[in-house]
Structures are given as C-alpha cells and as structure tokens.
Amino acid sequence: FTLAQNMKNQAEKFGLVSRFENVIEVNLNTQPKLIKTTESEYFAKSVIIATGATPRELGAPNEEKFIGKGIHYCASCDGMFYRGKTVAVIGGGDTALSDSIMLSRIAKKVFLIHRRDGFRGAKVYQDTISKLENIEVVLNSQVSELLGEDKLSGIIVKNAQTGETNNIDCDAVFVCIGRKPSTEIIKGQIDVNESGYVIAGEDTKTNIDGVYAIGDVRTKALRQVVTAVSDGAVAIHHIEEFLKTV
Fold it and tell me: Is 170 a catalytic residue?
C-alpha cells in the first residue's frame, strides 16, 4: 500500500488528476472514447485499462463472513499475523506451493489441501515441500465447511474419492486457487482470452486503436508490480505516438 501511495504522489507532482469514482459504463469504439462513472462522464482520445485481477474465492458457505478473520487470499500480505499458529493453504499451483513454503517459516503447522491427486506446481516447490516436516499434504480433498463464530477456528474437508470428512483445527485459511481478471465493464468491446484476460502483447495494445491494457488484467507470463510498471511505461510511449494521429 505504501509503495502504491508513493507512486500516486509522485505521478500527481507531474500533473496526474485522481478521481475516486466507480466506472459504470464505457464505450471504447467511439472517438473520443466515453467513460461513465457514478459521478460524471469523461471523454478521452486514449484509454488505459488497468483494472487488475481479483483472487478466486473458495466457494465455501459463510466465506464472506470470515474474510479478514481467518480467510485470506494473500499469504505474503497476511501470513505474519499467524506466527506460531496453524494454517491451511488451498490450491495446487505455484502460488499455493510457494505460499506453503513461506508460511512454513512462520506458522507452527501448515496443511496444504488440494482437490486433485497431485500438484501442477513446479517440481522444485514440490521437492522442497516434501522435505519440510511442518507441512502436511492433504490430496483429493476440498473444503466443505468453515468453522467458527466471530473468527475461523477450523475447517471440514471432504475426500473426493472416499466421501469421508475430516475436521482440521486451524487459525487461518489461505486461498490460492487462481485469480479472475476484472473485465466485466469492457466485455463485448475488448478481445479477451478463454480465461477472461485482455489480449494484449508486450506493446500493451488491444484490438481497439487507442486502448491499451496494462498490469494483471492483460495476458502475460508474470504478474508482479515490476511488470505492471513496465507495462505503464510502454503504454505511455505508444499513446504519445497514437495521439499524433488523432
């Protein structure tokens, strides 16, 4: 958060104008392009889509009730709150495996729960996990229920093969089952792939002239702050060229 605020402050020194409004409608096929918000309407010759992506939810009953009270979607953000405690990680990809390894250095015990019989994450992560004594792997299982009153106290997992259920006492669950791009507002106008990410290469250009996609919302191999910042610089370069033509 501090890094983002510093970036915003720096940009405002160079003339950035911030508006904290919800976008409710866009028309990117016109020139100028139209952006409607809850407060006003804006017209622009060029638009950058930087709506990002949000974590996929677990889908368990009462999940929303426990968000921030035991249910988390970012281990690097919230893991330190559970030093010396017991946590569970849900997922089988690189993020779930790497987060489990990171949490094993903080928590007393880590349960790594995956719905399939094997992980799809990198072998190097799997090899590391097999050597860590405080990580317990639970395969072929899904969380069927969240336990607790004011905060999470445990979970019930169901084995997909046997149908058996098992109670696991834990202080937190870190959900690492992927992310979903925030592209609802632009659907039908911008080309997206089968996962919903905006189709844009390293030049950040979309299928519409003057419209660019940067950060986690676009198709890319690595989604980190450093690549998002790079996208922004590239997009601005191309916008400067584009504005010479309109």
Answer: no
Looking at 77, 169, 191, 203, which residue is catalytic? 77
Whether 94 contacts 122, CB under 8 Å: yes
Report helix, strand or coil for 219: coil
pLDDT of amino acid 239: 98
Confidence of residue 77 (pLDDT cuts 50, 70, 90): confident
The tokens 């905060």 sit on which residue?
151
The token pair at 175 is 């959900």
Which residue among the candidates 74, 117, 169, 203 is catalytic per the annotation? 74
Before 181, cis peptide (omega within 30)? no
Note the pLDDT tens digit of each residue in 136-163. 999 999 999 999 999 999 999 999 999 9
Burial of 64 by CB count in 10 Å (0-12 exposed, 13-18 middle, 19+ buried)?
Answer: exposed
Q: Is 176 a catalytic residue?
A: no
| 28 contacts 198 by C-beta, under 8 angstroms | no
pTM: 0.73
**Do 190 and 213 form a contact (C-beta atoms < 8 A)?**
yes
Q: Quick one: average pLDDT of 171-199?
A: 94
**DSSP code for 197:** -
